Amino acid sequence: MKSFTFLLVSLSIFGNCIAQVKWDVKAGLNYSNVIAKDGDGSSASTSPVPGIYLGFGLGVPLSNQFSIQSSLVYAKRGFKAPESSPIGWGKGFDARVSYLELPVSLRYSPKIGPGRLLVAAGPYLGYGTGGTWHTDEAAAIGDILIGNKGDVKFQDDASYGDYGTYVYGKPWDYGAHISIGYSLVDRYTLSFGLQQGIADLQSRWADYQPDRTLRNRAMSVTIGYSF
Fold first, then answer.
1. Domain of residue 189, CATH code
2. Which of 71, 88, 148, 222 has the most other CB atoms within 10 Å of its CB?
C-alpha cells in the first residue's frame, strides 16, 4: 500500500512538472567571428559574418520569476580574414560553417509593464558539422594552386584530409552565453544574446600542437514563440 501511494504521489508530481513545462521555438540572425591568437598573444585580423539561428527548446519553472531554459540550436557561423593570416588561405578568406548547440541557462523574468523582462545566462555545448570556404583570389599551398573555394571540416588532427579542404578546428566547442529580452503575454519574445567560446579549437598537426589559439564568438537577435 505504501509503495502504491508513493507511486501515485510520484506520478502526480511528475505530471505537474510536465504540465508546467513551456516549449518554445525561435529564429533569428547571428553574427559570428573567431578570436585567433599566436603564441606571442598577437591577434589575427578577422571580421564577423551573418548567419541564421534556429532553436527549439523548453523551460522548466522554478518559481514565478526563475526558470531553467534549454534549447537545441542550429546556427550558421564562421568568419572572414581580409588579409592572409595563420588561420586563412589568401586574401579575402571567408569560412561559413554549421553548428549544433545545446545552451542551458538560468532565466530571471520579472514582471515589467505588460510583459516580462528576460535575463538569462549559462553554459553551452556545441558541435561543428561542416561548411564551405572561398577566397577573393586563388589560394595556394606552397606553390600549388588549389582554387578559390572548397569544403570546411572539423577535425582534432589537421594533418590529413581531402585536397583543398580547410580544417576549421576541433569539432567540440563549449563556452558561456548571456541574453536579455522581453516577453509579451508570456508567448512572444524578442532577445539579444552574446556567446563566448571557452574551448580552444586549434587542431593539432599529427603529434605537433601549433602555438596559437582559436575561439568562437557570436552575437544574436531572435524572435520566439512559447506554447
1. 2.40.160.20
2. 88
